[in-house]
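Supplementary material to the annual report.
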Amino acid sequence: MAKVVVVVSGGIAAYKAAALVSLLVKNHWDVRVVMTAAAQQMVGPATFAALSAKPVVCDTFDPAFPLGPHIELARWADIMVVAPATANWLAKAAHGMADDLASLLYVAFAGPTLVAPAMNSEMWQHVSVQRNVGQLQADGVHFVGPESGWQACRTSGEGRMSEPTEIFARLQILSIAQ
Ligand SMILES: Cc1cc2nc3c(=O)[nH]c(=O)nc-3n(C[C@H](O)[C@H](O)[C@H](O)COP(=O)(O)O)c2cc1C
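Predicted assembly:
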C-alpha cells in the first residue's frame, strides 16, 4: 500500500482535494493530510480527518510528533502531492522557505513531489509564478495541470486545478516508477 502525504494549501480548489483523498483511500493508499492555515479557511480539517481516518496535521509543533511532523511524515511517506498548490506555496517551495508545515515538509522530504497548481488565470500567468514554476521544474518537481476552464472567480482561463482522477492517475505512475 503506497503511503502519500496530501498537502492542501489555501486555494478555493481545496474542496476538490477531499475527492482526491477519498479516491486514494478507496484505492487502498495510506493517506496523511497536511493543511495550511489558509486551506482551513476553505475546508474544515474534519472532512479530511474523516476521509483519511487519520488526524490532519496543521501545526509544525504538533505534540503528536516528538521529532516534528516534517521529519516523521517525511520518513513515513513514499510520495507527496500538493493539491491545490497556491501561488504562495509555489513561491515558498521555489525558494526553500520553510515557515509553515506545508513548506517545511517539502524541504524535508527526499521522495517525489507532485504539484497541482490552482489559481486564477491572471495569477497563473504572472511572471513571478511562472518563474517559480520553472525553478521547481528544474529542481525535479512533477506538475499536473493546471487546466483551462471555468474558474471560481467567474471567468474562464488557465489555472483550474486538474481533476482528482487526473491527479490520482499521475500519482499512480510516479509511485510505480519509484
Ligand atoms: C476566496 C479565496 C480564494 C483563493 N483562492 C486562491 C487560489 O485558488 N489560488 C491561490 O494561489 N490563492 C488563492 N487565494 C489566496 C491564498 O489563500 C493566499 O495567498 C494564502 O496566503 C495562501 O496561503 P497558503 O499557501 O499557506 O495556503 C484565495 C484567497 C481567497 C480569500
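The radius of gyration is 15 Å.
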